[in-house]
Amino acid sequence: MHIGCPTEIKPQEFRVGLTPAAAREAISHGHTVTMQAGAGEGAGFSDEHYRTVGAAIADSAEAIFADAEMVVKVKEPQAVERKQLREGQILFTYLHLAPDPDQTRDLLDSGVTAIAYETVTDAAGGLPLLAPMSEVAGRLAPQVGSWALQKANGGRGVLMGGVPGVGPAEVVVIGGGVVGTQAARVAAGMGADVTILDRSLPRLRYLDDTYRGAFKTRYASADATATLIQTADLVIGAVLIPGAAAPKLVTKAQLSTMKPGSVIVDVAIDQGGCFETSKATTHQDPIYEVDGVVHYCVANMPGAVARTSTLALGNATMPFMLALADKGWRQACADDPHLMEGLNTHAGKLTNYAVGKALGIDVLSPSLAIKG
Predict the structure, then answer these.
(1) Catalytic annotation on 29?
(2) Continuous H helices in the chain
(3) Global pTM?
(4) Looking at the predicted structure, is the pLDDT value of residue 372 above 90?
(5) Active site (annotated) includes residue 96
(6) How many C-beta atoms surround the C-beta of residue 343 within 10 A?
């Protein structure tokens, strides 16, 4: 199979879809790999790194999209890229379609077979291709939150760990999954007073037993959430429903109950965000203010640490990429029901139920799509 990897063009996105190690593996399996010139530079990989393992270098994205049988990316294709996709081509990347009707329509119009990293599952019910970026984003959230809390950035001027005689910042993490757990760990390590909210009692027991009081746990009732945000200096939104739009857990009306200069970091923004006032921002212009509350809603947070993120993502995606190339997408999905969960569009049909529900679009069962 001819595998192509273009340079990411989303603002301030420095990751790359294929590492040299992944390119080497694909070539050793008998496939050809073409990288766009400069695609890996943001993550510290030169064109020579790719040439050394046997990959070809193309001068333009147009050449990649025109020739590749499978396009491997990191972020969802932008409008100019979507125009170059075609029926019979495989797109393997993050998509986050539920809050993005324009992208969904363009993918359906193109006829491309799109497999989304974020909806591939595993035997334990996890999301193995989302997890590494969730870990990165979770660990970044307290860092960017502490930066936004600085007075010069519009925050309250509160130090996360406080100092002797002065209490630490109060941090509330909504969601106890991968993102929330990593965020709570780092915030607690910075010395903050951390409370994590979740609706799963088994998960709360696990967090309590595993982290032994490093942070507090609370059941995520609407009342508990509304109460805790009133005293919080930093609120981190870390809620995910696989493939679906994130639930709005803090309303605009509730912002007025929060302290002036407090900070929201919405890690769920890729799926539409879990705060009613959230809107996607970029690393170039990451924050804005609503009713005195600073919002940090960067839609590609892991792109800020592109080297770490690219290596972590490459480790996770490589086995699935190789399966798609070795077997073709139909056989690979037929052999692996967890990979089949990643199928979002095929030949003009939507094949993910959560996305269909969010956007009001009829869905073709992925098992039927595989059968053709």
Answers:
(1) no
(2) 20-28, 47-52, 61-67, 79-82, 101-110, 131-148, 178-189, 201-211, 222-231, 252-255, 306-327, 329-335, 337-340, 353-359, 366-371
(3) 0.89
(4) no
(5) yes
(6) 25
